[in-house]
Amino acid sequence: MFNLDHKFLFVGLFLLFLTTSVYAKKGEYIPSAVGTMSNHPTIDGGVYHPVKNGKTGPYKINEKTLKGGYKFGRKPTSNELKAWDTDIMADGTGLPEGSGTVEDGEELYEAQCVSCHGDFGSGGGGYPALSKGSGYNMQKTLKNQRNRPDADGPVRVFGSYWPQASTLWWYIRDGMPHTRSKTLKDDEVYALVAYILNINEIKIDGKLVDDEYELTREKFLKIKMPNVDGFEPKIDGKGSLERVRKYYKNPKNFGAIKVAYAKRCMKNCQKKSAKIVRVRNGGIKDFHPPLSNKKDKPALAKDKLNVKKVYDESCAMCHANDSMQAPVAGKKSDWQAKMKNGGIKGVYKRGIKGLNVMPPKGGTTLSDDEFKKVVDYMINLK
């Protein structure tokens, strides 16, 4: 949410980093004991140096900058502020009325999301997974430690890790799909959220979000994510800032030694009793396949290129429509225009080397010949 106090916060932070001492007699620099910022204790014990006689420490400062106001631009209008204030809060603030079914959400997902986020939200192509099974079961893995070579680490996906579902609703509405953000209707967003809750096996008010489930605003506000209490300190609700300050004021809350609050702890801050867990046997001992110094070239595999799969996973995001200003797959006129510069060989060459925002070979690891087959597929797509 847009905050008009950012300018004042910037001034405070500027003073905090500008100096680490105040001027004293005989050129000595004595650290200030002030441990407050805007009349509140600083969270980390950092020092805020007050302005005195036009100086902060040994440095002069333009005191006019401390009076606030606008140096550039103008005050935003109420309509401009309203346009920027688009966040969806966990308590339902900003969440519009609407509804959507899991069935509709699955159709939308298959049409607009699967190329990046994979089947059933499994992830792929560098884009994050949205599900790895039951969110409740996966939440139990968050404390897993990789203290053995074969140990399973924590699974951090929407269902297991995110504390609030409101973030998902907000992000989908404002940022998805990647090539056409803010084009989804509110009911479509509800449908997609319902589907993602479904593949994470989330329950709402004790009822599983099954294939027949319809998500409404009223039901959405009853969602309690498996990891809602998984973060410290608690930052939700009224008085959260004071709770955060109180939390960090007591080093026992995060395993540190009790030190003077107004001083930073720069060494020996961890409890001596902290248990250090090391990887057993010095690390990995078994390699599959076994280590070898042979330099033989691998045997050439037979052509198993799945052209359609490559297109769906690596090309469709930009070439399925004209939103990215790239030639549309199957649209002959687009490709004929590109062939005016060097013919089909020119198209191959530019695609292999990369052009504008397109990486070489579309970011794939295809050989030149394989890449040419994918281009041919796009040109002749029906």
Describe this structure in words.
Among the domains are: 6-67, no CATH class; 99-220, Cytochrome Bc1 Complex, Chain D, domain 2 (Orthogonal Bundle), CATH 1.10.760.10; 307-379, Cytochrome Bc1 Complex, Chain D, domain 2 (Orthogonal Bundle). Helices cover 33% and strands 6% of the residues. It has 14 helices and ten strands. The protein has helices at residues 6-18, 78-84, 102-112, 114-117, 135-139, 158-161, 166-175, 186-199, 217-220, 240-249, 307-319, 332-339, 343-353, 368-379; strands spanning 22-23, 29-30, 36-37, 40-41, 55-56, 59-60, 99-101, 203-204, 207-208, 214-216. Helix 7 packs across helix 8 (186-199) and helix 11 (307-319) crosses helix 14 (368-379). The two termini are 45 Å apart.
What is the CATH first-level class name of the domain at 99-220? Answer: Mainly Alpha
User: What are the low-pLDDT stretches, counting only 5+ consecutive residues below 50?
Assistant: 1-37
Any guess at the CATH architecture of the domain at 99-220?
A: Orthogonal Bundle
Kindly, what is the distance between the CA atoms of the first and last residues, rounded to a whole number of angstroms? Answer: 45 Å
Task: Look at the structure and name the CATH superfamily of the domain at 99-220.
Answer: Cytochrome c-like domain
Q: What strand order characterises the main sheet?
A: 1-2
- CATH topology category name of the domain at 99-220: Cytochrome Bc1 Complex, Chain D, domain 2
Report the mean per-residue pLDDT as an integer. Answer: 81
By secondary-structure content and strand pairing, the structural class works out as mainly alpha
Q: What general form does the structure show? A: extended
Individual helix count: 14
Q: What is the beta-strand fraction?
A: 5-15%
